[in-house]
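Q: Predict the assembly, please.
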Amino acid sequence: MPKTSVTVFAPATVANLGSGFDVFGLAISGLGDSLRMEPNTYGGIRIRSIKGDDGKLSTDPEQNTAGVALMALLEHLGVNRGFDLWLTKKMPMGSGMGSSAASAAAAVVAANHLLGSPCSKEELVYWAMQGERIASGAAHADNVAPSILGGITLVRTTDPLEVLRLPVPSRLHVAILHPHLELPTSESRKALPRQIPLSDAVRQWANTASLVAGLYAKDLSLIGRAMEDRVAEPARGPLIPDFAKVKSAALDAGALACTISGAGPSIVALCSSRPQADRVGAAMREVYLEKNLSCSLYVSAVNRKGTVITKR
Amino acid sequence: MPKTSVTVFAPATVANLGSGFDVFGLAISGLGDSLRMEPNTYGGIRIRSIKGDDGKLSTDPEQNTAGVALMALLEHLGVNRGFDLWLTKKMPMGSGMGSSAASAAAAVVAANHLLGSPCSKEELVYWAMQGERIASGAAHADNVAPSILGGITLVRTTDPLEVLRLPVPSRLHVAILHPHLELPTSESRKALPRQIPLSDAVRQWANTASLVAGLYAKDLSLIGRAMEDRVAEPARGPLIPDFAKVKSAALDAGALACTISGAGPSIVALCSSRPQADRVGAAMREVYLEKNLSCSLYVSAVNRKGTVITKR
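A: Predicted assembly structure:
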């Protein structure tokens, strides 16, 4: 019995978590992409509409991460069927919160459901990752993995893809300040050094290891210390207006840690409770309000479910 | 009631564990330093004898890691007392198994006992680390931490010192091939690059993070994969005769992973049981025997106790 329609929701995500540049990712609640998908008789992929993108995204499936990921999955499965897609962005784009990844995640999870679930969620991460190629030039999994799987993920390798799911301490919340400015991922990538001092690298891999220990041991203070980033944050921080002041304000207000979300420009603070995240978020926003800089604030628990079916 | 004599045993250790260059360390059973210590009325530190060192170590306390660590501890405590030391090396020196660290660990644990235990074991790691300055030119803790604390340790930072104790899967064993040749730590350090490509660094910190996840999850296969080293092993492997062949032999015989122990020249294989470690060790040794290269083989469980008092 072929299924005829499905709607899924794929959450926004925070990649890197400081020290874990390109390897850690965390799914957040409330923000993400809603995608309706139906088989069509036309035979190809059609993106019928995109809402909430201010007209910025292409409805050409080859230029949209949802379309690219979906085509990669269908080719892998040897499925010669067409699908119509209706995408609703319920999150900011170009913000460093994994907008392109959420579209790719939603597309592969929806199609997998309509096809009778031939793939596990873990396998779907691989196909969603193919969509990221057109967004950032390389097939990264640090956003698509948490968007599909939920929680906090660790990408050990992308070739072959190996993703670990890490424990999520129940009290963990995030406050995210989204500055209303464009910071293309390509520009943010260009700011990174191609070589780094061995001493900084050692400190960084001590920190990623310690962050995992903190997650398993539910040691929130250790998690905060272990997010220290000697590599990406020093290079990218200067691209974000008043990043240092926002970070100071977050830490002064009690945040466990504060760093850049993904490639930026959003700034994320990890917090040990919802009330703390509210206070920390208010303190971060205050820095922008004082300077008349436009921004949005999001406060959220960690999304543990990943991409889910919201309507069949 | 002042205590009058104590004998301690500090175990040999394997630093790095592949990906975790300068941060991970593991204590092994059977090998290490035995140290007897007594207060003296002379007032200074005297190393009365050193056995098992083939006359290679200095009895000048300022030239011996035991003496340097002990003096650092006594100065910190404001203790103006003298101690006599009798050191027995029950492990090879210059082997990459933490010989200098074992001496430093033994000295601070023995003195701390004789002084009524003013310091915790964690604090003693800091003072033992000071002894490492004369052995390797820098105060590293990746050998002294496991030698004192036992098990598997992670040094997040040395300044300030922060050491984490990681879970040890019960079946974990090591096979260590010790080539009978000199590879000074200074030479082994010189082989390291000062800068590394960001892409290699990312893979390395994905691996250290995954290694910790493997230890917590008792996933031995993941532990093996996560020991992959893109940084130190490629630079140092060529300094060790037939390293690549020994590694291949170990992996072919079923080892979870095989890499250089500390700065070398010893080669360590992690194994999932004692019988497997015996088989893997035999296969590693066979490579050296076939070429008439002199070596010793050690097969051991993980030492979980660290430095212990063996006689009061």
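Chain B touches chain A at residues 19-24, 154-157, 162, 164, 166, 192-198, 201-213, 216, 222, 225-226, 231 (CB under 8 Å). Residues 20 and 194 of chain B are 16 Å apart (CA to CA).
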